[in-house]
Amino acid sequence: MRPENYQAQSHPPSHEYELNFGPNHPGIEGNYALQVRLHGDTVVSAHADGGYLHRGFEKLMEGRLWIQNIALVPRICVPDPVPMEVCYSLAIEDISGLQVPERAKWLRVLQLELSRIAAHLFYFGGHAATTGMYSPSFWGVADRDLILDRFEELSGGRVYHIFNIPGGVRRDIPEGFLGRVSALLDYLEARLPEYDDLLFRNQVFVRRSKGVGVIDQQQALAWGVTGPNLRATGLGFDVRRDDPYLIYNQLDFEIPTEDSGCCWARTLVRRSELQQSIRICRQVIAALPDIGGPVRAPIPNPLAWNVPVGESYTRVESSKGELAYYVLSTGGEKPYRVHVRGPSAMHAVQVLEKMVTGGRLEDVAQIMFSLDACPPEVDR
Amino acid sequence: MSREGHSSSYQRLAGTRSLQEILEIATEFERTARDFYTALAPRVSKRIRWLVEELADEEQAHFDLFDGLIKRMDLAEHIADRIATPASDHRFSDAIHLPDLGENPDDQAVLQYAMGREHAAMDQYGALAESVEPEELRALFRFLANEETEHKRELEARYYEIVHSGGV
Amino acid sequence: MSSDIDYKDAGSILAPLKNLRFFAREPVTEPLGPRPAAENYRGFHVNDWELCIGCSTCQKVCDNAAISMIHIPGLPNDPVKGVRDHRPAIDYGRCCWCGLCVDICPTGSISLTREYVHTCTEPELDSYFVLPDPNGMHKTHFPKGWSKTEQNDLLDHDRQPMAEMAPEARIGDFAEIVAGYTDQQALLEASRCVQCGMCHDACPTQMHAPDYIRAIWQGNVELAVEEIYRTNPFAHVCGRVCTHKCEDACSIGRRGTPVAIRWLKRYAMDALAPAKVKKIAAKGKSRKKSGRKIAIVGAGPAGMTAAFDLIKQGHAVTVFEALDQAGGMTRYGIPYYRLPSESLQRDIDIIVSLGVEMRYRTRVGVDVSMAELEQEYDAVVLALGLQLGRSTRIPGSDHVQVRAAVDLLRRIAAGESLAVPDKVVVIGGGNVAMDIARTLARLQKQQHGVVGMTVCALEDFAHFLADPEEVRESGEEGIEIIDARGPRHCVVNDDGTLGGLCTWKVLSIFDEQHRFAPKFDESDERIHEAGMVVESIGQMTDTGLLGDELTEALEWNRGRMKVDAFGRTSLPWLWAAGDCVNGPDVVHAVADGHRVATSINEYLTQEVAA
Q: Hey, which bits of A75-133 come out as E strands?
């Protein structure tokens, strides 16, 4: 706990006590913390305490040129950076009427889905760790690394790809890239049964997570739950299908759902999404060789670029849920306002506080992680 | 206007058989030229006096060079060294027509005159180098011709800079 | 769709044996040895110092302010060539390796490498602050990673096209050829600028080009004109006919077409109403009269710029001009199709409107002597220009139909009618040669219906003096330009009429030191048939007006009046400016005008103080 947030209090004699999850909890990176008040093993109340580690993205963006923000946005969600880049770019393209070339759209989808797979692999490891199982962590991180290798090849950066810019993408794919991605997908698909054996058919994990942290559909909608967390309550809403962007309406994929709304359901939805993402990637790889043309629309000199007056609320489906950018331009060379509607801030604050209340101490970490909130995105 | 008696001196030079003697005559030419420019300088406009004074200085430098050579013992050897890389010559067409330097010559006229003079001297020494027999005399004439060619090239460059005032 | 994983199926009792297969698999851990990075890797920077010009564009795009420009003594620093002795240094405590510096670099000098490990105990590297050079930060020559390609280049290399009249349309009369930018074109062109300021440094009068370009980009023409008037009262003229050293230095020009700085200036000047321009020009004019009188000889750009500055400083200024109107060579030398006299007149009107007294048709040395000027005025400026045309003086060049280009241009500009033969040869390869050739070609078209114009230049096309666009446009107008021809003599027919020009082929014009050393091929002799030969090889100042006494009293520098860094001659009351000391072009003349005005003002105010 940060000293400035600490208030010494003298409590009346009680069986209640406070416990801090984070900021150094091994299951969650960043500086975000959850303060829980317990009675015995039962959570009486919880308070999400946003950290300082990644503060001020939105304000920072107001002070930077339109193009400079492309290096900033992926940092908002480190494990799943591509939707940040794409969504920011889409919003600017929407305001300024930039026509993104077809090839760039497909390349963006390929990145988006690879990023989703990487984020989910990262997530399984973390979630399993909260139940005391560490093998999936190692597996997930190692397999995610193979995806990062491809991102490194594509963009020159493993974690912060900074590859999408308003107008398209910065470069075309390297020679032989699609073949290597294809091989990677084959490998990952072959790994899925092994993950099933390790985690999803592992009775320890099943019993630990089933029926824990339940949220019903109505509550989920009322609290602003989106993405896999919402789909785990039986509602098959996905921006990719219900408000399609880029070329998602040309792709064939399904929206996995589960009904039970518990930790297990949330993990299972993501497990099924892996398969769908692999499926989408394969469609892109098949289609891309026939889509020629440039990978970026001509954009003005970045040092003299006034995005026309206008505003845009643009949303995409990130691995964590619905991600949206509200961008307001007053016709200047810098954004007047950028607001990020991030799924993690929703899930990790208002949803989590309510969900853990009444739950048990040993489940707190798991519930936190099952929502797949990304701390930098909460901190901001 | 005087041309410093080149045609008559050709006969004098052609009959000469000693290196020292040739150099003395060549030195005499340079002295005459220097005196000519020195005398001209006060008569031209101050605007172009620098040009005439420069020419006088250059002739003086040649005079000093030849004069110094006369006094050297290893003359033949030294000259052989100096003409190892002869200056190439090609004629500059609008400069070879010798004008009559009138009472108040301008910079172009002075330069054309000077170029004409160097050209004539160069031609003469060149012809002598071809016609005389002993190798050491040939070498000396080639050296002299080379010196005059060098000087003419310098003048041509200056002519371009002054008259063809680049790019207007 | 729900998952089909049967979580209740615990599997066979032998299921754990599946794990045995992992023994046969490679470990997923990375080997301990160095791991080569991907070809596009965004690692530490390298910078090719030969290519880098120190323009600081990388610094401007850097989103973390990680780049500082460091002065490196000993590197070339040449404003005219657009090179600064600064190089970017990276603060790796701030750098985020986004590579925008690579994408925007106008020269393509900066790249990222595949080097990404920096562990070191040496004190000289014990810093995050690194000056990238071609060898990389550890001098280990890692291959390049993310570097400039056509795809990731963020700069627009193509200039907005300037609409101009088709050759067939323009050859018939003297209408201005270029149309000027529209608002939209100007805005787009201005947006190409990276604000490096190379143009400002290269400009003889240090125009604030980045600022006015920025103002145009912001749609604020009034501000643009204000920025222009900070340094240049001949902006209508310079917007059309400036030799644009700025564009030669423009960093965008390193890999693309430089920003059309000159056309943007023209756009701003034309876009603002003359009354508003007048108001801007009058800003800062002193209300106090100094009581000092200054005479300026010559109403060209240098003289009028000096007049502009001095009148604003509160002095009384009288300009003596031998001809009917002001403008000097810009009026009497530059053809109408390049600079319409109305545009020039707008500049002149603004300067005169500030209160300058103009004495036209007054020839100093004839109507008024230099001695009188010295007597009556506190200071005198000689802005005489280069009004005399040089002659080749080849045989036959004294023929009446062998003319000087500057004389003809002056007569035509003054409105004299001139009968042009159907065949004309111009000797010369500079811009004046192009001007007279194109002017006479227009008259030929009007008088004979066809163009019969040949230009013989001493220089070959590789060393040509005229601007490439002049050469191109001349060609479009049906003018034959023959390079590398040395004039031999003018052919005079038996009846005394001019027959043409005889030339030799020039084999080479410069030696290895790039000094003039022509070589001719005398066997390649050509006769160019012509009824008129125009000599346009060079120009000189007519210093006759000074008189012998003053000529003798003045110090000279290789044929020109000797002046100090501020344009003052060896005489305390006399300054000289413009082409006659520092030429030849308009913008140098403007710069000179400012210089002498500053010097005179200092001299006069010091005198008062003393």
A: none
pLDDT, mean of residues A288-296 = 94
Subunit contact C393:B94, Cβ cutoff 8 A? yes
Q: What is the number of structural domains in chain A?
A: 2
Q: In this complex, do C194 and A256 lie within 8 Å of one another by their Cβ atoms?
A: no
Q: Report ipTM for this prediction.
A: 0.90
pLDDT, average across residues A311-318: 97
What are the structural domains of chain B? 7-86+101-162 (1.20.1260)
Are residues A96 and A35 part of one domain? Answer: no
Whether residue A64 sits in one domain with residue A35: no
Q: Same domain, yes or no, for A37 and A89?
A: no
- When CB atoms are compared, the residue of A206, A272, A303 closest to C7 is A206
What pTM value is reported for the model? Answer: 0.88
Q: Do C558 and B99 touch (CB under 8 A)?
A: no
Cβ contact, residue pair C38, A172, below 8 Å: no
Question: Does the distance separating the beta carbons of B167 and C465 come in below 8 Å?
Answer: yes
Expressed as residue numbers, the domain containing A276 is: 57-379
B109 neighbourhood in chain C, CB within 8 Å = 393
One-letter-per-residue 3-state SS of chain B: CCCCCHHHHHHHHHCCCCHHHHHHHHHHHHHHHHHHHHHHHHHCCHHHHHHHHHHHHHHHHHHHHHHHHHCCCCHHHHHHHHCCCCCCCCCCHHHCCCCCCCCCCCHHHHHHHHHHHHHHHHHHHHHHHHHCCCHHHHHHHHHHHHHHHHHHHHHHHHHHHHCCCCCC
Q: What is the pLDDT of residue A27?
A: 45
Provide CB contacts within 8 A for A201, sequence distance 6+.
C5, C6, C7, C9, C10, C11
A to C CB pairs, distance under 8 Å = 126
Chain C neighbors of A171, CB-CB under 8 A? 40, 149, 151-152
Domain co-membership, A77 together with A194: yes
CA C309/CA C581 separation, integer angstroms = 19
Report how far residue C53's alpha carbon sits from residue C539's, in angstroms, rounded to the nearest whole number.
Answer: 36
Report the gap between the CA of C372 and the closest CA in chain A (Å).
56
* Subunit contact B168:C430, Cβ cutoff 8 A: yes
pLDDT tens digits, C55-85: 999 999 999 999 999 999 999 999 999 999 9
Cα–Cα nearest to C45, from C122, C102, C123, C128: C102
B46 Cβ under 8 Å from any chain C Cβ: yes
pLDDT at B71: 80
Q: Which residues 460-489 in chain C show a CB within 8 A of chain B?
A: 465-466, 486-488
**C contact residues 552-581, partner B, Cβ 8 Å cutoff:** 552, 554, 556-559
**pLDDT tens-digit map of A72-130:** 999 999 899 999 999 999 999 999 999 999 999 999 999 999 999 999 999 988 899 88
